[in-house]
Amino acid sequence: MSTTVTAPSEAPVFYVVDEHPHPEGHSTALGFWIYLMSDCLIFAILFATFGVLGGNYAAGPGPRDLFDLNLVALNTTMLLLSSITYGFAMLAMDKDRVKATQFWLVITGLFGLAFLSIELYEFHHMIAEGATPQRSAFLSAFFTLVGTHGLHVTFGIIWLVTLMVQVHQRGLVVANKRRLMCLSMFWHFLDVVWIGVFTFVYLLGMLR
Amino acid sequence: MSANAHNDAHGHDVHAELGVAHGSMRSYMTGFVLSVILTAVPFWLVMSGKIGNPTWTAAIVLVFAVVQIVVHMIYFLHMNFKSEGGWSMLALVFTLIVVGIAMAGSLWVMYHLNTNMMPSHDMRQML
Q: What is its main location (chain B) (predicted)?
């Protein structure tokens, strides 16, 4: 008891009395980064699944029969170009140039659509040949991993269009800059995941 | 008080309050050129089969992938030890540890499971 009975002025302070101000959106970047990290865990599990099941062809077609590296290289180029054009959009945004920002966002979206189209063409081609997700464990893992990435890109494009409408309506206000910054992280993150996909699935698949 | 000055003040506020590292034209282009090289070389190695040994090719391709991921992190995602007072980096390190455990553990365990528990084709054991 004696330790707690002290003069108020000498009482140890266990908490910050005056919390420092939190402006709106000050923690969005960190929060979004933590979301991306959790997304990273999803992809890690899908990569691990592919790593475990990637060799189980069930006497069906393997990577060498199915993959066309020229197509994958083209796809990778599309995603890489969309990454740099999004970078240009962010640079234009920093200078408050609405038209230039919108222009680069359109280009980014087009590259994203090209990526998706090529991926869907590849999927269609494989399924038409009978290499469906049900064919073997390898194909199930392949379609889940690559399909999840493609789904992320799809939602990224929907988000991109939404933001373009918002920038068109409200201009480059603080909230829109924050949103564009989040999408920037999302988009570049998807490119990072794609590095894993083309290396782990396609290139190493061809070497198996 | 012009609208422009107002915007500028806001622009600064955003970056100050979000603690977001800036990319410049120079850093984006550096990242882009590096990642083009780091993408093209592995594709070329695998497609041309320049290195006869698949194991070595795979190892080199994996090294290129890791380097390219780091390049993207630095030049496109603007990762450093200072953003968000180091919390971004902490979250990344934590994630990498979990990913490392999950990936290495799954591959290791399942590899041994496959090797050690493959059904034997020696039918005499079944009798």
A: membrane
